Amino acid sequence: GAGVSQSPSNKVTEKGKDVELRCDPISGHTALYWYRQRLGQGLEFLIYFQGNSAPDKSGLPSDRFSAERTGESVSTLTIQRTQQEDSAVYLCASSLGPGANYGYTFGSGTRLTVV
Amino acid sequence: GDSVTQMEGPVTLSEEAFLTINCTYTATGYPSLFWYVQYPGEGLQLLLKATKADDKGSNKGFEATYRKETTSFHLEKGSVQVSDSAVYFCALSVLQGAQKLVFGQGTRLTINP
């Protein structure tokens, strides 16, 4: 597609439930990033995928968070046993390579509300 | 670790006023610096960037100069418009590892007609 696509755009879930968020990067973009944006705050890095290399998971806040990506295609971010503090907008970005030189294209995000 | 500090908002200006949003950074290497903008209801968009000291990024009338000596990347525009109302994020990316973006907390700008 022309841009980075994320689904769903909005998700309301009950505390304790698992959720799965999806990101479709731009075709040919080998690098993919997940970020979290809490209300009134900047974006926090969560995880980075580059091709078939081992992902950089250094930003994941707890073991309830995990993400997968098969090759250079779709990525899913899974949050298990959701808590209210997980409420945020989850943004995905992709890039032709590591982003500092190539630039990052962001999706519109998934707004997650845990009630 | 790497970090970005930007001017706290919200900022409210009248149309045609001069805008400055301050941004300073701390980085272990030589980062690339970015300004991103988030218009109401839209995704994050790159506004401008600079990759080395003394570079000036510019777009849509906005400018920012990479100042290594003051570790700053302040955003400026000479005459703002109502359509510039948005949240602005300063960010850096270091040329190693994941090259992830490190963001400031964002500054909400409102321009009144």
Question: What would you say this structure looks like, in words?
Answer:
The complex is a heterodimer of chains A (115) and B (113). Chain A is mostly beta strands. Chain A is 3% helix and 46% strand. In chain A, the strands form 2 sheets. In chain A, strands 2, 4, 5, 8, 9 and 10 form a 6-stranded mixed beta sheet that branches. A 4-stranded antiparallel beta sheet of chain A has the order 1-3-7-6, with no helix packed on it. Chain A is globular. Chain B has 113 residues and is mostly beta strands. Chain B has no helices and 12 strands. The termini of chain B are far apart. Classes of the chains: A mainly beta (115), B mainly beta (113).
Pick out its properties.
heterodimer, A: about 120 residues, mainly beta, 4-stranded antiparallel β-sheet, 10 strands, about 5% helix, about 45% strand, globular, B: about 110 residues, 6-stranded mixed β-sheet, 12 strands
Provide a concise account of the structure shown.
The complex is a heterodimer of chains A (115) and B (113). Chain A is mainly β.
What is the topology?
The complex is a heterodimer of chains A (115) and B (113).
Chain A: E1 5-7, E2 10-13, E3 19-24, E4 31-37, E5 43-50, E6 65-69, E7 75-79, E8 88-95, H1 99-102, E9 105-106, E10 110-114
Parallel strand pairs in A: 2-10
Antiparallel strand pairs in A: 1-3, 3-7, 4-5, 4-8, 6-7, 8-9, 8-10
Chain B: E1 3-6, E2 11-14, E3 19-21, E4 23-26, E5 31-38, E6 44-50, E7 56-59, E8 62-65, E9 75-77, E10 86-94, E11 101-103, E12 107-112
Parallel strand pairs in B: 2-12
Antiparallel strand pairs in B: 1-4, 3-9, 5-6, 5-10, 7-8, 8-9, 10-11, 10-12
